[in-house]
Amino acid sequence: MTYMTDSISFIHAADLHLDSPFKGLTDIPETVFQDVRESTFTALNQLVQTAIMKQVDFVLLVGDLFDNDKQSLKAQVQLRKAFQTLQEHDIDVYLSYGNHDYLLGNPYRLAFSNNVHVFSEEQVSHFIYKKNEKELATIYGFSYHQRAVQNNKTIEYQVENDHIPFHIATLHGALHGNQEHDPYAPFTLQQLQAKPFDYWALGHIHERAVLTTNPPIIYPGNTQGRHRNESGAKGCYYVKMTPTDTFYEFVPVQNIQFVQHRLDVSHCVTIDDIEQSLLTFMGQTDIKQLIHLTFYSKEGNLYQFSEDGLLSQIIEVVNEAMIEQDDWQFIYTYRIETVKKGTVAVEETFVKEIEKALGNLEADKVIADLYRHPTARKYLEQEDELALKEAAKKMLLDDLLHVEESDVR
């Protein structure tokens, strides 16, 4: 029997990606890169502090706690310390492993404190959460044993113990038909909604999304962005459940925010004007930011500033001033959009269409034959998919439009 006084609260997070290498950012200043390198761990600590401040009953971590299957001891120790801190505040943890940190990939896992409950099977299993000796919630989930789980797991989710008030399902997987992510443990919304669960805690997709509200089916996104395509606020969800209602709110925990910004400098006549526009736009935040900046101008002088090296120099001047602040900002890469002689003005929507097409491209499949070629592969270096897409985009934009893109050195 469910009593009106029954309630639980928890933090729902996923995709911490501890130990992320942050490829492509090694050329930024060491003081900035040190913050970047530690950012996933800082986000973890802020998640723990959020759980303590909210006085939650437990924390759900739904897959990809680590960025790879061979986790460093440092990352494991940091996570163990976080769990020990939660234990000191009587907060339980229920966790699963995903495609990045699958269970059979690391034979040297550290043991966690007694408040941590691991879904160690690839078949869906469950734990019962007790509060004041009363069984209040059944929590369901599974872990990846190999890098890929291709089958639909929803059939394995069956409600156990009907007398328990709350039933919460955790699932690290992708919505069926999502072309932008690996189709691991695919599911449909109809399949999840057909199950009598009170909340679906999802993981795997790094962009937060409330897929439905009845019941809540939620992706929290990752806790710390790692490149320009993971821009904006990153964090977790705070959830409170009663027999009649479920309240949830997003709580940002990231240490560094990736930002994409388009700055119109058509009114700027001199490089001093551009500097003033930069200073006006920057410095209006209370969080550390890595900025991918697009300079846009209907006038031709922007391209000339770039050709003469003035644009990169003024960015360097502004960056040097901004990284001295506690909540620093740093323009780590930029591009310019101008009118090419004899053409019409660059349309932002066209640029976005190129970026969308490249985002949907499965680069590894396109170049697989090239890397398998017995002669060609000797002259090739294996690159990650993101780097290949960025290089392709840069070539397209420079050739089709007059869009110049540069990293800040």
Count of individual domains: 2
CATH topology title of the largest domain: Purple Acid Phosphatase, chain A, domain 2
CATH-defined architecture of the largest domain: 4-Layer Sandwich
CATH class of the largest domain: Alpha Beta
Shape: elongated
Number of strand elements: 16
Termini distance? 64 Å
Count of DSSP H/I helices: 10
Mean pLDDT: 88
What structural class should be given to the helix and strand makeup?
alpha/beta
What is the beta-strand fraction? Answer: 15-25%
N-to-C series of helices and strands: EHEHEEEEEHEEEEEEHEHHEHHHHE
Radius of gyration: 24 Å
Helix content: 25-40%
- Low-confidence segments, given as residue ranges, are 341-347
Set out the fold topology.
Blueprint: E1 8-13, H1 30-54, E2 58-62, H2 73-88, E3 92-96, E4 116-118, E5 125-131, E6 134-141, E7 166-172, H3 189-193, E8 199-203, E9 209-213, E10 216-219, E11 235-241, E12 246-252, E13 256-264, H4 271-281, E14 288-296, H5 301-307, H6 310-322, E15 329-337, H7 348-360, H8 363-366, H9 368-372, H10 385-400, E16 403-407
Parallel strand pairs: 1-2, 2-3, 3-4, 6-7, 7-8, 8-10, 13-14, 14-15
Antiparallel strand pairs: 1-11, 5-6, 9-10, 11-12, 15-16
Helix pairs in contact: 1-2, 4-6, 7-10
Mind explaining what this structure looks like?
By secondary structure, this protein is of the alpha/beta class. It folds into 2 domains: 8-252, Purple Acid Phosphatase, chain A, domain 2 (4-Layer Sandwich), CATH 3.60.21.10; 256-407, no CATH class. It contains 10 helices and 16 strands. The strands form 3 sheets. The protein has a 6-stranded mixed beta sheet, covered by helices on one side. It has a 6-stranded mixed beta sheet with strand order 5-6-7-8-10-9, with no helix packed on it. A 4-stranded mixed beta sheet has the order 13-14-15-16. Helix 2 (73-88) links the parallel strand 2 (58-62) and strand 3. Helix 1 (30-54) packs parallel to helix 2 (73-88), helix 4 (271-281) packs parallel to helix 6 (310-322) and helix 7 (348-360) packs antiparallel against helix 10. It is elongated, with a radius of gyration of 24 Å.
